[in-house]
Amino acid sequence: MGLLTFTEKGIYCEQGDFYIDPWKPVSKALITHGHADHSRWGNRQYIATKSSVPVIKHRLGPIKIQGVEFGENILINGVKVSFHPAGHIIGSAQIRVEYKGEVWVASGDYKTEYDGLASAFEAIPCHTFITESTFGLPIYKWKPQEEVFAEINQWWADNKEEGKVTLLTGYSLGKAQRIIQGLDDSIGQIFTHGAIENTNEVIRQQGIPLKKTSRISQQTKSKDFIGNIVIAPPSAVGSVWMKKFKLVSIGIASGWMNLRGARRRRAVDRGFVLSDHADWDGLNDAIKTTRAERVIVTHGFTEIFKKWLIQQGLEVATEKTEFEGELSELGETENTENESEVKG
Predict the structure, then answer these.
(1) In this predicted structure, what is the pLDDT of residue 1?
(2) Most-buried pick from 28, 80, 152, 340 (CB within 10 A)?
(3) Backbone dihedral angles phi then psi of residue 194, each to the nearest 5 degrees
């Protein structure tokens, strides 16, 4: 069966009697990061990195949660556990599990490009590596983020010249803050949807600096947005909340914008390829650097990626989970904390 097994409640360690990112309530949950598909309400006890605890508490409310430092070893019923940077979002971790010399790493969601906010991805040697495959096809190869932000800032500047409001969508935890940090605020003012600004406040309270942003409220006048940029969750597009903006150009920042026609299907003006998940090369590099003998592929292009890894000489299995990858980037599954802010 192995050190970690996949059950109806989630990824389970029998020896330690704990779960990793469970999708049903359990007694002890080790959490890789704060996104809703990995950090769910109802567990009796949570353990996560200290840098992800504030946002998890913000999203889940009063919970019993223990924070640990990256690289700190803890013993759970004789099983050695440690959290290591995944590079996905602030506080995101891979979880290393060791028992009697056997080492597994559950990577959660990860990216290998350093974004300036999340702690940089760290390769952890192991016997078995559990990997996502959200973008596990060769067609997914990301540009350096500096090039993407140059495109975004030029689009914003062009819209300003035309007297337009620029609106760019990104998930309210992770992507939104990454976008904010990459914007050239000499062009204009950065406005934020309430769900994003709530998250920004939690992050700033941790001492993490973010560029200046302005929360959109009922008192904000339509003329205030002209020439400036608005950052909003994908679920806000097409809502009553959008009536605040008159002449507006809408963009999406997501790995799915790599697909021809994705922007057209979402009825937006611009699509920017920017993902908080590893691309094809990132996935392969991460797996190679772990020196794992066995790989378990979860959410994404699991069967295709499995076949590729087998061709590389690895022992590979696939497992079904309830993790969603980057579906939420298109507004399909995002759970916005304050729905009233979306509805108006």
Answers:
(1) 61
(2) 152
(3) -55, -40
Q: Convert 166-223 into a string of H (helix), E (strand) and C (coil).
A: EEEECCCCCHHHHHHHHCCCCCCCEEECHHHHHHHHHHHHCCCCCCCCEECCCCCCHH
First to last CA, the chain: 51
Question: Which phi and psi angles does 296 have, rounded to 5°?
Answer: -115, 125
Confidence of residue 336 (pLDDT cuts 50, 70, 90): very low
- Per-residue pLDDT of 131-185, as tens digits, reads 999 999 999 999 999 999 999 999 999 999 999 999 999 999 999 999 999 999 9
Residue carrying structure tokens 């309210």: 172
Mean residue pLDDT of the chain comes to: 92
Cα→Cα distances 115→149, 179, 200, Å = 11, 10, 17
What whole-number distance in Å separates Cα of residue 90 and Cα of residue 55?
Answer: 9
Phi, psi (deg, nearest 5) at residue 144: -55, 140
Domain interval for residue 96: 5-139+277-324
- Tell me how many degrees the CA angle 335-326-83 measures, rounded to the nearest 5: 90
Say yes or no: 124 and 198 in one domain. Answer: no
Q: Please indicate, yes or no, if residue 329 is contained in any of the structural domains.
A: no
